[in-house]
Amino acid sequence: MSDAAATALPATRLVWDLPLRVTHWALALAVAGCFATHYAGIEWFTWHRRCGFVVLVLAVFRVVWGIVGTRHARFASFVRGPRAVLDYLRGAAARPAGHNPLGALGVLALLALMLLQAGSGLFANDEIMNAGPFYGWIAPQLSNRITSLHRYSSDVLLVLVGLHVAAIAWYALARRERLVPPMFTGRKPAADVPAGEAITHSRTLLAVAIVAALACALVLAVRAAPDATIALY
Which DSSP state fits 186? Predict the structure, then answer.
């Protein structure tokens, strides 16, 4: 290859589409908002619920995007079985352009916990004066059990978030692999992304349409839910 051809090669290639990147950081902010408003007290419950709505819509969108999104956003492109995970841990597998097999497990676990948290929050209550929008659709006793699940799973989610941050730090320090910048730019070094695995577009309009449909469905469901009053006695 001539020097002119070598310098013409792109320094980076696009891997993460724009909707995926926006969803990633918006979920991080919304989850942080849920924890902050929870610990801030009951006067912040309205904002706690709003943050929960954002988590629910975006987490469901991420699941849908894992089916219809761009190449490296799709679950089929990075979710692998135990053998692939072991090969990766042994260093016997090539570095993938997208999520590695071990990171894929983290993605699935975080999505599952966020869906559980946001979904259970729709039916939960604070046993004082506030409740989720779907509280009126179920018996108070069932809501109390769901509230316990909501509370305990939040601790698990907090642990997973901590492990996620720790893993990012370990990759940066031990393997000199920076995972954060590509989640802003969407691009990775060309040496790590074969030309045939780069994406050329983000399908942003499709993503906006999906998010809008999910948000509208949630708004309609909340408006259709019966008014609920927590029985203190």
Answer: -
Q: Which CATH number characterizes residue 51's domain?
A: 1.20.950
For 145-201, write each residue's pLDDT tens digit: 999 999 999 999 999 999 999 999 998 998 888 899 999 999 999 988 988 999 999
Contact, 133 vs 225, CB < 8 A?
yes
How many residues belong to the chain? 233
Q: What is the number of domains present in the chain?
A: 1
The answer to whether residue 97 is domain-embedded is yes
Q: What is the pLDDT of residues 71-130, one digit of tens each?
A: 999 999 999 889 988 888 887 777 888 899 989 999 999 999 999 999 999 999 987 788
Distance CA 61, CA 217 (A): 12
| Residue in the block written with tokens 């642990």 | 159
* Residue that the structure tokens 């604070």 belong to: 126
Task: Tell me the β-bridge partners of 13.
Answer: 188
The answer as to whether 1 is a domain residue is no
CA Rg, the chain, in Å? 21
Among 125, 168, 172, 133, which Cα is nearest to 149's?
A: 125
**109 touches 161 (CB < 8 A):** no
User: Residue 104 sits in which domain range?
Assistant: 12-224
Could you tell me the pLDDT band of residue 208, with boundaries at 50, 70 and 90? very high
